[in-house]
Structures are given as C-alpha cells and as structure tokens.
Design a protein that fits this description.
Blueprint (H helix, E strand, L loop, with lengths): L28 H22 L6 E4 L4 H17 L3 E7 L6 H15 L3 E5 L9 H20 L3 E3 L4 H13 L4 H4 L5 E4 L2 E4 L7 H11 L15 H12 L6 H29 E3 L5 E3 L1 H6 L2 H16 L7 H12 L5 E4 L2 E6 L2 E6 L8 E2 L3 E4 L3 E5 L8 E4 L1 H8 L8 H5 L2 E5 L2 E4 L14 E5 L4 H7 L3
Helix pairs in contact: 1-2, 1-7, 2-7, 5-8, 5-9, 9-11, 9-15
Bound molecules: adenosine-5'-triphosphate.
Adenosine-5'-triphosphate (ATP) binds next to helix 2 and strand 2.
Length: 460
C-alpha cells in the first residue's frame, strides 16, 4: 500500500480538535518508515482477512479508534477491489454521546459513499449483567442486520492488544487451551460469518492510520474504568512487559494454543465417533467406556464442546467446573447433575446430556426464521401473524402435545421450541404437533451453528 508515501507525509494534515485524543504524529524519518511498514501490514492483514468472502461485508463500527481504522482500511480495499461493503453502528442508548458518535460514523460513511445503519438497543436499563447483555444485544442486532441485508459476513475490529488482554483474562479464569486460543480470525456463530481481520495488528498502529488521515475517533469512557477486567488486563500488561510478557508474546502464545486446540479437536472427533450419538431433539448420548479410555484433555475437550452445543451458549463452561463434572459423570456416586445450562443423567450403561429446561430463554416474538436458544433453527413457511411468541414447550406444552413415540425423555422435550399465543399452544414442531397439519408451516431443526463444534460433533 503506497498511500502514505514519504512524498506526501500524511501526518502533515491537521487533526480534528474536538473528537479525538490527538496524540503527536510520527515525525522523524525512521518513524515514517516504521509507520509505512506497519500501515502496509495492517492493509495486507485486512485484505487477507476479507479474501474469499463471497458477498457484502458489514463492518461493525462503533466510532472508536479500532473500528474507525477498520472502516478506513476496508474503504481503501473496497475501492481497489470493488467488493461491496456496508457499515453498522449499534447505539446501546447507555451513554448520552452515543447518538452523536453514531452520527459521526454515518457522516464518515456518507463521505465514503458507503451505506450505514444505526441499530438501536432499548433493552439496557434493567438488564442483569449490563455489559454482557449489551454485548449479546450488539451481536444479535448486527447479525440480524447482516441477515436482513443479505450480507455474507460481519467484520469486527479486534486488535492484537484485545487478543492479548483476552488471553490474560482467560488465564486468570483458569481456561484450558480452547479459551487460551483466544478469539478466532473467522468464526461462524448463529448462522453468521464473523471476521476479525485486525487481530494481528497493534492498537497504536490503527490510531496512527487514523491520525495519518486526520480522522478523529471517540473514546468510550468504560475503556478507562478499572472495574472492568479488560481494563485491569490492559494495565497488567504494562506491569508484565519488563518480564518479556508483552502483546506480541501473548498473541504468539494464543496462536500456539489455537494449534493445540485444533489437535485436541481432531482427537475429539475420533472420540466423538466412538462415544457419542444424538437424538433429533438434541439429546447427547455418551458411552462412558471410550470416554474413560481417552486422554483426559481429549475427554474434557469433547465434554466442553458438548456442553456448549447442548446449552446453545457461545462459551464453554469454566475449566474447574468442567473437571468436577467430568469426574462426577465418570465416577459411580452421583446419578445425575447439572452444569452450564445442561442436565446429565446416567441411563443404563450410558450417560445422557440434555438442555436444562429452566435455563431456556424467556418468550420472544415469533419470526419467520430465527435461531432459538442458540441451538434450534425455527422457521415458518407462511407469514407469521402478530402476537405469536416463541418459548420452550415446558410441562404445560407437553401436557397438550403428549409424548411423541420414540421414548424421548419429557425433560428433553420441555426444552424444545414451541409457538404460543398467550397461553395457547399453536405449534410444537419438534414434537410434530399438531399432527393434523394445521400448523405444518412451522418447522424446527436442531442445529450446531458453530463451524468448529460442527466439525467435532456431527457424527450421528
Ligand atoms: N457500538 C458498536 N457498534 C458497532 N460495532 C461495535 C460497537 N461496539 C463494538 N463494536 C465492534 O466490536 C469490536 C469489539 O468491541 P469492543 O467493545 O472490544 O471495542 P473496542 O476495543 O472499544 O473497539 P472500538 O475502539 O472500535 O470501539 C469493535 O472493534 C467493533 O468492531
């Protein structure tokens, strides 16, 4: 990328004064060379991260420095390649300045001739763990928006610094290799392809890219709030640097962990083929003998993947809890237990793992095509009338449908999706209700959306 050539020093432009931190730009020629190399590396990383994506890429841009740099680099790449881009900003409505930040991103996009949408979240006040709820809502809004536009992927602007902070936070939580592998450059969750093309690029480089263009950016005050683990991790990195434990070292370690995780996955695949079968309702049946015979790390990886898939959650259980549950499952004492929104129970010689009904989500409005509880794809082949909701079948629903033939446990059926109108059951597609075809428009398919887990677990 030659945009920042020495003939036209980009840092000679003026910085906006109101809406940026405005740190000093590199001045000496050695820094210019360093900057050119770093900026070219960022542009090359973005091009590699976006390569082969078959359609529009929707950029998630908050107005912060990282994601504005993503916008800047992606706009250059799109201008050179003609690849379609769009941009979305989520206004969580949690800070007064957020609307102005979204408007500033919109203005930037208008100047670049890129479509932009502001997606508002109204669920803030009252949400339990507010930052987790805001993150989940952001992902849901972004994936819904991308699906509505028919976009092929959503791009996030996580950096090498984010990856290193994530590594430290997971280390502190006692994560295994799966967690220590950090964030993936590509992942498929909830039917959406998520891209993180800047995971190898330093935050400071991205700030320099913006300074070079004279673009300001917004600072989210929560990035300085020491109550957040991420901020603590950022500060800890400063303390650890003299030990040689810096961002590049942690990122390199995370990528070695990703290789180890892939090797475990591979072994887990062989173990799954020997030990695992599924019912159509998403009940996992395990044969303990091959589990016992497998190396502990492979066994734990398979159990972590299973618990993640059956619970529909994005993250596996904590390592310590997983180890305790694995011991209990393979020991003789406890006949049953629960972990990570799942129930396990001994059945004959085997073990059954199923979703815990009370961990299923509260009712949501029924739509024509939606992922429910992270594990069921629920569709309707006809327009959905107003006022219908999607919620777990539960005991009340099962009392209406009765147990379908096949011997599936009532508890498993309780955690399947059902369509309701107030308290009246309209359809329970996983139970084939109603049998006379009145609600045949509804279908439900048990699904493992995450590409990595799909590889490990789809051996039926
Ligand atoms: N409000 C938002 N609207 C759209 N995308 C967002 C929003 N908040 C975060 N993102 C996306 O998620 C990524 C990671 O979020 P995180 O909260 O860690 O952001 P960050 O490190 O503060 O980055 P940025 O400086 O771009 O906000 C961002 O880089 C951005 O791509």
């Amino acid at each position: 990328m030659t945009r920042w050539s020495a003939a036209s020093p980009p840092w000679s432009r003026t910085w906006p004064t109101s809406w940026s931190r405005g740190a000093t730009a590199p001045a000496a020629s050695a820094s210019r060379v360093t900057f050119d190399a770093a900026a070219s590396a960022a542009a090359a990383a973005l091009a590699a991260g976006f390569s082969g994506v078959p359609g529009e890429i929707c950029l998630a841009v908050s107005g912060g420095g990282d994601s504005l740099a993503l916008l800047a680099l992606a706009a250059d790449w799109a201008a050179a390649t003609g690849h379609p881009l769009s941009v979305a900003t989520v206004d969580h409505r949690l800070r007064a300045e957020a609307a102005a930040e979204a408007a500033a991103v919109a203005a930037r996009c208008a100047a670049l001739d890129l479509p932009h949408a502001t997606l508002a979240w109204d669920g803030g006040p009252g949400a339990g763990n507010l930052s987790q709820a805001a993150r989940d809502a952001r992902r849901a809004l972004l994936s819904g928006h991308a699906a509505a536009r028919g976009a092929a992927a959503v791009a996030l602007a996580h950096t090498a610094d984010d990856q290193a902070e994530t590594f430290l936070m997971r280390l502190a939580r006692g994560s295994g290799v799966g967690g220590l592998a950090g964030m993936a450059a590509r992942s498929e969750v909830g039917g959406v392809l998520w891209l993180r093309p800047l995971l190898g690029i330093r935050r400071d480089t991205l700030r320099d890219v913006l300074r070079a263009r004279g673009w300001g950016w917004a600072e989210d005050p929560s990035n300085l709030d020491a109550r957040f683990d991420r901020v603590k991790a950022r500060r800890a990195l400063d303390t650890l640097a003299p030990l040689g434990l810096d961002v590049p070292r942690l990122v390199a370690t995370a990528s070695r962990m990703a290789e180890a995780r892939d090797a475990l996955d591979h072994a887990g695949q062989a173990l799954a083929a020997a030990a695992l079968s599924w019912s159509a309702e998403g009940e996992a049946c395990l044969r303990p003998a091959p589990l016992r015979a497998a190396p502990r790390s492979v066994r734990l990886q398979l159990l972590a993947d299973l618990l993640t898939a059956v619970s529909g959650r994005r993250h596996p259980p904590r390592r310590a809890a997983l180890e305790r549950a694995a011991e209990a499952m393979l020991g003789a004492e406890a006949p049953a237990g629960s972990l990570h929104g799942c129930l396990w129970r001994r059945r004959g010689e085997g073990l059954v793992l199923r979703r815990e009904p009370r961990a299923c989500p509260p009712p949501v409005p029924a739509r024509r095509d939606q992922l429910w509880d992270g594990r069921w794809r629920v569709r309707c082949s006809a327009p959905v009338p107003e006022g219908l909701s999607l919620a777990a079948l539960g005991p009340a629903g099962l009392a209406v449908t009765g147990r379908p033939p096949g011997g599936v446990a009532a508890e498993t059926l309780h955690a399947t999706p059902a369509i309701w109108h107030n308290d009246s059951l309209i359809a329970a597609p996983a139970c084939g209700y109603p049998a006379d075809g009145r609600a045949a428009a509804w279908s439900a398919e048990w699904t493992i959306e995450d590409a990595r887990r799909r590889r490990v677990l789809t051996c039926r």
